[in-house]
Amino acid sequence: MSAPPAEDLVRQWEREQARLRQQVVEEDTEDWQRSPDFSGLERVGGVDLSFIKGDDVNACAQLVILSYPDLEVLYEDSQMVTLTAPYIAGFLAFRETPFLLEALERLQENQPTLLPQVVFVDGNGLFHYREFGLACHLGVLSGLPCVGVAKNLLQVQGVYKSEEHQSQIAALQRGGDSFPLTAASGKVLGKALRSSDRSSKPVYVSVGHKISLDTAVRLTHSCCRYRVPEPIRQADCLSREYLRIHFPAADTGIKE
């Protein structure tokens, strides 16, 4: 059977996003989330996909579990996968989520005691064209609390790299400072967070599932040794190391 035309696929995916969007929980659901020091949180997950440069089909899907608050690696799963869904802007989750879910399912089957209590996703959650980015998609389908952390600003719903945005970034004085990303509708879809005293360039945090925005921002800051929260940074490093070892002749590209 041939693939549906792009416009038909987009409409199908829009309907699926709208259906799943209704299931997103935008508030704290776990006891540890309400604790000032996240007492009771012991395991944080990070996921990422890394590609060989010039190949947008074959990727290393990575899951890493870290201890909290020490942020030491407890578990890692690197798996080469072949993406079958096309890349269409705003629908990244349909390409990536199945493989990230499979990694979580392998963990559940092999070492269920290490299942993460929250997952950091290299991408957006509610800060998205239709308020349903990769972190929301993975959260709803896995049932786990998820936080979206993007390294670059998605210019969406009236949020732009304007002079005002740049001045707000400049006003972030220290690690932990943030400002809201407010859509044209007036809804706050995420926050720009200065995650480290050493990095003046913010990350963009948004709710994925089963966590409030303020808690997501506070947790993200607590997981940052550098600019990018450690679960995502480790997932990125480990997946790129896997590609370097198994595909030594290939250029795996450089991520900031």
Automatic annotation (TrEMBL):
<keyword id="KW-0694">RNA-binding</keyword>
<dbReference type="InterPro" id="IPR007581">
    <property type="entry name" value="Endonuclease-V"/>
</dbReference>
<dbReference type="GO" id="GO:0006281">
    <property type="term" value="P:DNA repair"/>
</dbReference>
<comment type="subunit">
    <text>Monomer. Interacts with PABPC1; the interaction is RNA-dependent and stimulates ENDOV activity.</text>
</comment>
<protein>
    <recommendedName>
        <fullName>Endonuclease V</fullName>
    </recommendedName>
</protein>
<dbReference type="GO" id="GO:0010494">
    <property type="term" value="C:cytoplasmic stress granule"/>
</dbReference>
<keyword id="KW-0460">Magnesium</keyword>
<dbReference type="GO" id="GO:0016891">
    <property type="term" value="F:RNA endonuclease activity producing 5'-phosphomonoesters, hydrolytic mechanism"/>
</dbReference>
<dbReference type="GO" id="GO:0003727">
    <property type="term" value="F:single-stranded RNA binding"/>
</dbReference>
<dbReference type="GO" id="GO:0003677">
    <property type="term" value="F:DNA binding"/>
</dbReference>
<keyword id="KW-0479">Metal-binding</keyword>
<keyword id="KW-0378">Hydrolase</keyword>
<keyword id="KW-0540">Nuclease</keyword>
<keyword id="KW-0238">DNA-binding</keyword>
<dbReference type="Pfam" id="PF04493">
    <property type="entry name" value="Endonuclease_5"/>
</dbReference>
<comment type="similarity">
    <text>Belongs to the endonuclease V family.</text>
</comment>
<keyword id="KW-0963">Cytoplasm</keyword>
<keyword id="KW-0539">Nucleus</keyword>
<dbReference type="GO" id="GO:0046872">
    <property type="term" value="F:metal ion binding"/>
</dbReference>
<keyword id="KW-0255">Endonuclease</keyword>
<dbReference type="GO" id="GO:0005730">
    <property type="term" value="C:nucleolus"/>
</dbReference>
<comment type="function">
    <text>Endoribonuclease that specifically cleaves inosine-containing RNAs: cleaves RNA at the second phosphodiester bond 3' to inosine. Active against both single-stranded and double-stranded RNAs. Has strong preference for single-stranded RNAs (ssRNAs) toward double-stranded RNAs (dsRNAs). Cleaves mRNAs and tRNAs containing inosine. Also able to cleave structure-specific dsRNA substrates containing the specific sites 5'-IIUI-3' and 5'-UIUU-3'.</text>
</comment>
